[in-house]
């Protein structure tokens, strides 16, 4: 693990530095995800403030933090995969339906001020590097891990690019309203 590398390299101080950095990174990642969830929910259903949505999502996620079994996390991940597939289907259908409406003209500006935040959102899906060593320790066949990781990144990248392209094709610059 990264802690072991810190311990072997710089002793106890190295291990503590690695633990501190990883904890700060993981807490920051969780905060970013909570804020993104709250912002997206507010756009779809603006009945509460962003602070309330962050609190609601934090309370919903607390039980998942206590899961220690990688097997159970695997089962929960399959639920996540199914929800992603369903979401992709809904977004593609909505985008195609909106794109073929007659009378509406869609404006497209490929490079706008929202592009940076869209790419930042995309890159948060690759922020699992601190968890790789924990997952690798519990894998039955560690030699296949690199292939699985590359495939996972390729799938995540493809899903994000596909959804962004479908949404932009169907809604143009109006996608920023959602």
Automatic annotation (TrEMBL):
Major location category of this protein: membrane
Keyword Membrane: yes
InterPro entries noted in UniProt: AA_transpt_TM (IPR013057)
Protein's membrane topology: Multi-pass membrane protein
Key words of the record: Membrane, Transmembrane, Transmembrane helix
Entry's localization field: Membrane
GO molecular function, one term: L-amino acid transmembrane transporter activity
TM region(s), chain numbering: 12-38, 50-67, 74-96, 116-136, 148-171
Amino acid transporter transmembrane domain boundaries: 1-176
GO cellular component: vacuolar membrane
Keyword Transmembrane: yes
Identification of the protein by name: Amino acid transporter transmembrane domain-containing protein
Native species: Oxyrrhis marina
Taxonomy of the source species: Eukaryota, Sar, Alveolata, Dinophyceae, Oxyrrhinales
């Amino acid at each position: 693990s990264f802690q072991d590398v810190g311990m072997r390299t710089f002793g106890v101080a190295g291990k503590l530095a690695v633990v501190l950095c990883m904890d700060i990174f993981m807490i920051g990642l969780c905060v970013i995800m909570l804020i993104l969830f709250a912002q997206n929910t507010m756009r779809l259903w603006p009945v509460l403030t962003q602070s309330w949505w962050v609190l609601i999502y934090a309370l919903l996620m607390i039980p998942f933090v206590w899961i220690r079994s990688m097997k159970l996390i695997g089962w929960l991940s399959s639920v996540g995969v199914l929800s992603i597939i369903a979401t992709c289907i809904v977004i593609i259908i909505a985008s195609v339906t909106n794109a073929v409406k007659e009378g509406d003209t869609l404006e497209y500006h490929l490079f706008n001020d929202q592009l940076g935040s869209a790419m930042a959102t995309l890159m948060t899906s690759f922020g699992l590097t601190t968890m790789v060593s924990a997952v690798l320790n519990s894998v039955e066949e560690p030699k296949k891990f690199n292939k699985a990781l590359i495939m996972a990144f390729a799938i995540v990248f493809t899903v994000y690019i596909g959804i962004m392209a479908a949404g932009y094709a169907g809604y143009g610059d109006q996608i920023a309203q959602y």
